[in-house]
Amino acid sequence: MSTMAVSIDGKSVTTRLAMRMEDSLQAFAVRAACFIGELDVPYSEEFDGHDFGATHIIAYIGDEPVGTLRVRWFQSFAMPERLAVIQRYRGHGIGQLLIERCRKLAESRGSTMLYAQALPGDVKYWEKQGWRRLVPEETSSGTKRIVAMVRAVDPSKPLPELDAPQAIVLRREAQLDASGLPLGTASN
Amino acid sequence: MTEAKTTAMSNRPVVTIKLATTSDELMQCYMLRAAVFMGEQHCPYWEEFDGNDYTASHLMLYVDGEPAASMRVRWFASFAKLERAIILKRYRSFGLFIPFVDWAREFCRKKGYRKAYLHAQRRLWPIFERMGFHKVDERIFHFSDHEYGAYVCDLAVDEQTMPTVFSDPMVLNRPEDRLDVSGILEASMERGASNPHAEWTERRAN
């Protein structure tokens, strides 16, 4: 369950945590390629002010960064988000590898629950990966429909009592007053 | 009538071009390049971030404060090399490219460079030729999947104002895209010269 290996054309995919500035830049670059380049997300939405309070996991083929995942830490759960894999490396399970690394990291920190926000169309995929809806049938709320999903960090144990996540407004949690935007953009 | 016009004017997006001077602006520059070169053109990370980013100047163009375009300039002895010029997809075809290159050329000219040099992708040759660039020679070379030609443009440097070793020292200390505006170090002159480390060399010498 915790041993997962992915290789592409005989080259194995490795994951590691961003430790140095260059690592973080690689994580950011992969996200920029996928979210800004492919999906046309504005820079200031993609880089939302949470990047320096989070842990970044990066997937490599050799020394080429090909995928990344950001994990934010809350008192009662860990929140993987901003999952991105460079287009030509998709379909090999790199995303799952990153999520698994996140799960193990959460386990090592004593976290018991993973919480993620999925697009409605992706819910079935996440359910196959062992996630379930936080609220069995969520009533649509807000303008953008996002489905809250949870998963036990240790699948052999039942999910802990669910009380926190739903009450916390995670979507726009902490605009960090006005400085949630990258410094300098306001003055330009 | 006048009012309507004013409204229309104020609704126009504000375009700002500047030298990247903070780590956030540098980050914006790198992310735009990742979006375009890695995301759209499928360039590998290590080809895009080739080791020359920390020997270069980076220019940023903002539309209403949102990072929209960037360009890298490297400084050789006799020419400035413009490279890695990109515009984010959603900001293309608004005529931003030519003013951006013009700003870059003006930046190089004010620094005293007589030549702006670049490698132009073949599809862009007519645009650069219209802007006053001409081919260095007939060589065509290719890298990162594209064919290129080397282009150069002569810049009319102002001998009176270009920075030289005889320029006002405090002018040379100014931020490079604002050589004509008083800089932060000029403000520090108010503090006078207390020479706090005056004895240091002496101590080391003994």
What keywords describe this structure?
heterodimer, A: 188 residues, alpha+beta, Aminopeptidase, 5-stranded antiparallel sheet, 25% helix, 26% strand, disordered C terminus, B: 206 residues, 8-stranded mixed sheet, 33% helix, 25% strand, globular, disordered N terminus
CATH fold field value of chain B = Aminopeptidase
Q: Give me the CATH architecture of chain A, please.
A: 3-Layer(aba) Sandwich
Multimer state: heterodimer
The CATH homology group name of chain A? Gcn5-related N-acetyltransferase (GNAT)
Shape of chain B: globular
Using only CA atoms, what is the Rg of chain A?
17 Å
CATH class call of chain A: Alpha Beta
CATH superfamily of chain B: Gcn5-related N-acetyltransferase (GNAT)
Mean pLDDT of chain B: 92
**N-to-C order of helices and strands of chain B:** HEHHEEEHEHEEEHHH
Percent of residues in helices of chain B: 25-40%
Proportion of β residues of chain B? 25-35%
Regions with little confidence, pLDDT below 50 for 5+ residues of chain B: 1-7
Sheet with the most strands, sense and barrel status of chain B: 8 strands, mixed
**What is the chain-wise order of helices and strands of chain A?**
EEHHEEEHEHEEH
How many helical stretches of chain B? 8
CATH architecture of chain B: 3-Layer(aba) Sandwich
> How many discrete structural domains of chain A?
1
What would you note in describing this structure?
The complex is a heterodimer of chains A (188) and B (206). Helix content of chain A is 25%, strand content 26%. Chain A has 188 residues and is α+β, with helices and mostly antiparallel strands. Chain A has one domain (7-174): Gcn5-related N-acetyltransferase (GNAT) (Aminopeptidase, 3-Layer(aba) Sandwich), CATH 3.40.630. Chain B is globular, with a radius of gyration of 21 Å. The longest helix of chain B is centred in the N-terminal third of the chain and has 18 residues, at 23-40. In chain B, 33% of the residues lie in helices and 25% in strands. Chain B has one domain: 3-Layer(aba) Sandwich (Aminopeptidase). Chain B has helices at residues 2-11, 23-40, 45-48, 97-110, 125-130, 169-172, 184-188, 200-205; strands at 15-19, 56-63, 66-75, 80-87, 115-121, 134-135, 141-143, 146-154. In chain B, strands 1, 2, 3, 4, 5, 6, 7 and 8 form an 8-stranded mixed β-sheet that branches. Chain B is an alpha+beta fold.
